[in-house]
Design a protein that fits this description.
With about 475 residues, the chain is mainly beta. It has helices spanning about 1-35, 395-400; strands spanning about 70-75, 80-85, 85-90, 95-100, 105-110, 115-120, 130, 140-145, 150-155, 160-170, 185-190, 210, 225-230, 235-240, 245-255, 255-265, 270-275, 280-285, 290-295, 300-305, 315-320, 325-330, 335-340, 345-350, 355-360, 370, 380-385, 405-410, 415-420, 435-440, 445-450, 455-460. The chain starts with a helix and ends in a 7-residue tail after the last strand.
Length: about 475
Amino acid sequence: MPPQNNSTTKYVIAIVIILIMIGVGVYILVGRGTSSTGTGKDQTAPPVFVPLNRNKTTGANKTTGANTASTTTNGNNFQTAIPVLRLLSNDPVGGYGASTTASTTIVRWVNRGRGNVYETKADSLDITTISNTVVPRIYDSIWNKTLTSFVGSTLSSGSANATTIFASLTSRVVPKPAGTATTSKPVTTTTTATTSKTTTATTTAPTTLTLETSSVVGAVQTPYELKGKNLPSNIVTYALSPKSDRIFMVTNESGHGIGYVATVDGKTLTQIFDTPLTQIVAEWPEDNTIAITTKASSAEIGYMYFVSPKTGVWSKVLGPTMGLTTKVSHDAKYVLASTGGPDSVSTKIYTVSTGKSIDAIIRTIADKCVWGNFNKSMFYCAVPNQATSAAYPDDWYKGTISFADKIWQVNASTGEVHLVTSIVDLSDRVIDAFNLGLDTKDEYLYFMNKNDLSLWSFDLVNSKVQ
């Protein structure tokens, strides 16, 4: 009997050991299957569209692997992809400016509703509020090259007439702690009227411009505040000089367009011409050349002129042409001209020295284009994917029609045309681009979306021109 009991005990022990081994094996296999330390393709999310003011990518946005341009490293040494197409501001923007330094590209813009000024850099996803001075309802702005000031148009509540202002970013003086909470006081700058040096006519005296900083208790103090002044009233068009040290403006005085050149803050006003034209738009592409084009309509004949900022002498460049819109290269050697009419638009490149033009191949409105700052014979245009039945450019200006655009690059000297990008493939919305701009080295293309006034940038260096 004892030998039999001993054999049974050994048999039971063996079975227990086998069961334990099977259990350990199952545990190991299940553990490996659910481990978060693996290196499978699900470990790292694919590159996706990332608005600039979001800290990390999510799968909620429309994705494309081609939208990753480079990476940036945050304070935790975590690398975040910087997309080729970036949403800089989802809120409506009242104009922007961009400049390239030795190390990066900086862009600043002003909030359309409140007037806050924001800044970001090309190699960072961070957005900084650099001024919280309240300047409500800024509809457009043109910035100087150093991004320290701008000229813009504002619309006061209850008024149908825009006011043109000069605003400068001034370093904020931080008060010493007084032990009690304080609120910022309004900053008031008063200007005096100036008279033309070459005519007895005078412009209406500028009114006081009151700029108010945030009065919210505990609000973060920004490094800058806006200070400025109102420019002469009844300005119908204006443009900054290439060096951003002068401003050209045309005021409507008793039904006449009076042209002035002044310092950028509106001082030392000098009249250079008097014209019966008041429905005009202006550019200042080159130091010695101001371009003036009559406002475009499909039912109206248009003209474009070059005007000397020194003498005020006019010389006709283009016209008569129906529905004429223009953009002049920054050396004033070329004019991109689009003509419109019922259900048609054409775009041509005009060479000023020869008086001849060639077809630009693309079909778009010149106001949807921008000339290069570095490569002055190159321009970029937002071109509709397909034609829409409309009166051009009127219906687009009025918002009756809208486009879904592609970005094209055209070389005016060679006639070469290249597709840069189909925006809809990279964005989370349909973009009807306008107010296009480039940094000083033509490395980044900026534009606003006419549908929602959002601001975008496109990396021309890290993208591949097709």
